[in-house]
Write a structure and sequence with these properties.
By secondary structure, the protein is of the alpha+beta class. The chain has one domain: Thrombin, subunit H (Beta Barrel). About 15% of the residues lie in helices and about 40% in strands. It is built from 2 helices and 7 strands, in the order H-E-E-E-E-E-E-E-H. A 6-stranded antiparallel beta barrel has the order 2-3-4-7-6-5. The longest helix is centred in the C-terminal third of the chain and has 14 residues. The chain is globular and about 35 Å long.
Length: about 120
């Protein structure tokens, strides 16, 4: 288990396994490809992020994204880019939706842990 996972304090009624971090001030952008249809959708912004997923908004072609779609993501930060894969698990109100990360390699887990420690 990594540091972020070990430090997660949650109750049995909390539906999230990992703490979320607000990233609206850090300006994390994501390029998004819908792997379900093999098409690039555009660039959006992360609202919050955890070790398990993120909430994305301001994606130009957001209306073409549906629950269950598998997305290829490139998380672009200040000093690096992190390729991720995830599935749309929630459509919020307006222009946001939730993505659950899938198949994080050990390298991606380490890089995600580093990013989350910086946000903590």
């Amino acid at each position: 288990m990594n540091d972020v996972q070990l430090n997660a304090n949650f109750t049995t009624d909390d539906r999230r396994m990992y703490p979320r971090y607000d990233v609206t001030t850090t300006r994390l952008s994501l390029t998004v490809e819908d792997e379900s249809i093999g098409e690039t959708i555009g660039i959006g912004e992360a609202v919050d992020i955890s070790f398990g997923g993120l909430r994305l908004h301001n994606l130009p072609a957001q209306s073409s994204v549906r629950l269950g779609d598998r997305l290829g993501l490139l998380l672009i930060g200040e000093d690096n880019a992190l390729p991720l894969r995830g599935q749309v698990v929630h459509h919020g109100t307006g222009d946001s939706f939730g993505i659950k990360f899938e198949d994080l390699s050990s390298g991606a887990q380490q890089r995600m842990n580093h990013l989350l420690q910086r946000l903590h």
